[in-house]
From TrEMBL:
Domain HTH gntR-type span(s) in chain numbering: 17-85
Keyword Cell wall biogenesis/degradation: no
PROSITE patterns named in the record: HTH_GNTR
Organism of provenance: Rhizobium changzhiense
Annotated protein name in UniProt: FadR family transcriptional regulator
Length: 240
């Protein structure tokens, strides 16, 4: 009997690959093929833009990713240098998520985030520089502006937390959150179809910044827990 075509599984189109991810892969391939070693200089930003056909912001995002992995460093007035060999096989640490069961995935990632973010907030409070504080506050101001305009600010919220991670000066914090970025971004796009998700946590981002600025690790931990406790409550409430 001929199978009914309606019973066949649907082959869905492939998603458009993130441009920064493409640049990251291209740079890793270049390092490997050119057999660059620690201490070797990477092509200049303008050269990369012309060769890869992308804008400056995309190049810089890819460079930041490599910096977070601790494999390159940028020296002011000199260029960008390789700290250790890298290949496409070593620049990504994919995690597996069962995205069909979104509620469970979010609660699982929240368990991990709670430990990481509390520690990150404490470390950031101890190690942050004046430059770090400027960047964190810029992200916070953007988050607050968008939140007041739209009532929600998912991408800006993520950018704020990434800035806190960067202020730890420990690349592992950012690396770990980067691996969960796809899940969080998908979640922030459609948080149970509720624009007001975690809205109650909004004021605590400012108090978290204040704690980090004051160099108070325990206060930073307490404010981080307030944010994540509200996120957990809303996940459970909205997914009943």
């Amino acid at each position: 009997m001929k199978a009914n075509s309606s019973d066949r599984p649907v082959i869905r189109p492939l998603p458009v690959m993130d441009r920064a991810r493409q640049v990251t892969d291209a740079l890793a391939d270049y390092v490997e093929e050119a057999r660059l070693k620690a201490g070797d200089r990477l092509p200049a930003e303008r050269e990369l833009m012309a060769a890869l056909g992308v804008g400056r912001s995309t190049i810089r995002e890819a460079i930041r990713h490599f910096q977070a992995l601790g494999v390159i460093e940028t020296r002011k007035g000199s260029g960008t240098y390789l700290l250790k060999p890298v290949s496409r096989a070593t620049i990504h640490m994919p995690l597996s998520f069962d995205t069909v069961h979104l509620r469970d995935v979010l609660l699982q990632t929240l368990e991990v985030r709670r430990g990481i973010e509390c520690e990150a907030g404490m470390v950031a409070a101890r190690r942050r520089t004046s430059t770090d504080l400027v960047v964190i506050e810029e992200k916070l101001d953007a988050m607050e502006r968008v939140h007041l305009e739209k009532g929600t600010s998912g991408p800006e919220d993520l950018a704020f937390h990434l800035a806190v991670y960067d202020a730890t000066h420990n690349p592992l914090f950012r690396q770990l959150l980067e691996q969960m970025r796809e899940t969080f971004e998908r979640f922030w796009e459609h948080p149970f179809d509720r624009q007001d998700f975690a809205r109650r946590s909004f004021p605590f981002h400012r108090t978290l910044f204040n704690a980090i600025a004051a160099g108070d690790p325990e206060a930073a931990r307490a404010e981080t827990l307030k944010i994540l406790d509200i996120v957990e409550e809303d996940i459970k409430e909205m997914s009943k």
